[in-house]
Amino acid sequence: MALSLTAADRAMLNGEAGGAAAFAMQVLAAFAEALGAASLIDISRAHVDGCLYHGQASLDFVERLVSGGGRVRVPTTLNVGSLDLIHPEIMRLSAGEQAPARRLMRAHEELGCQPTFTCAPYQTLFRPAFGEQIAWGESNAIVFANSVIGARTNRYGDFIDLCCAVTGRAPAWGLHLDRNRAGRVLFRLAGFPASPEPADTLYVAVGLLVGERAGERVPVIEGLPPPRDEDQLKALGAAAASTGAVALFHAVGITPEAPTLADAFGGHAPQEVVEITPQDTARALRQLSGVPDGSAISAVCLGTPHFSRAEWDRLLALLRRAGAAGRVPIYVNTGRATLAELERQGELRDADALNLVPVADTCTYVTAILKKLDGAVMTNSGKWAHYAPGNIGVEVAFGALEDCVASAAAGRVIRRVP
Length: 418
Prior knowledge:
Blueprint: H1 7-13, H2 19-35, E1 40-42, E2 45-48, H3 56-67, E3 76-78, H4 95-110, E4 134-136, H5 139-149, H6 160-167, E5 169-171, E6 185-189, H7 200-214, E7 219-222, H8 230-243, E8 250-251, H9 261-264, E9 272-276, H10 278-288, E10 297-307, H11 309-322, E11 330-334, H12 336-344, E12 356-360, E13 376-379, H13 382-392, E14 396-398, H14 401-410
Parallel strand pairs: 2-3, 2-4, 6-7, 6-9, 7-8, 10-11, 10-13, 11-12, 13-14
Antiparallel strand pairs: 1-5
């Protein structure tokens, strides 16, 4: 199917909006044609994942847009970079190593992007609404926007998300269209005891299992207990997007496009039904962490995706109740807006006394921040546990937030929460 461009699209392609916009439209049109999209659609906002430095090519692409006078046409937030620009003292990179990463982050700002540098743009003022057509990069943000909010985006990778932002357009394809948002495979929880407040670990485990089995199909989850808050759904989506290609899930009776099972499947029968039992979730969590109880740890890392204000409140209450600094530091990745609010309200006044290290603009599993790597690192994040061994070469111990706090205090792995 040939791609049909509007007169405005063709004008942009022909350079009437400047060289950068022409280049971005050229890339976007070629991408849309490769997908088989019939046309392009307007988007209302974008989130760009390309400000994490992976090499000179990533910087060259953005510099070409900057030199061509490029500007984004819609409100555009930025994902994490390779540096914490607010706390440069915690970076364990030489000035030479930092320079291109810093330039990449600043170059995106020169294009008019908002310097949010967070993997959780849905926690900012730029959160989309139900039904909005957007172009977001970053896997956890994509699945959250589609699933929890009900906005519409495909999984846009580096460069394509920025081209969407510069043109204000995206391919009319995939999850932008009604027909592709219906569920295809059913995951049914069975054998779980009723609980007034299900543990965070359940949502991580279900996400891991769904990601492994769903592939690129839209999963529907039946029997998931109502979450305490959005953060539990955030953890589920991040885990599913890490172990698989999930960009949208429906949780029956919970997410906005799945008030009923029939609604979630759009009236069609599931292609496959997968049962998830307590034994399955226990196995998934064991596979996530091979570090046994009692093992020494060198740090705790939280906030992947970035910690929300509600998560900070839970953590600070646990730490202050413990009443003493941990033997190992607790690194917490969080967004600038959340960090600024905490500091404005004086909530981090005792951070040093609690051996607490806030990290902004980046994440501890993608760049050199941790001071010691001679022991396992503990986390409550399925995504951090999945990627950190390959990214920074650490052993990972996984546990609930309460267990992470207890382990930091003891300097060894303690697990008490199922």
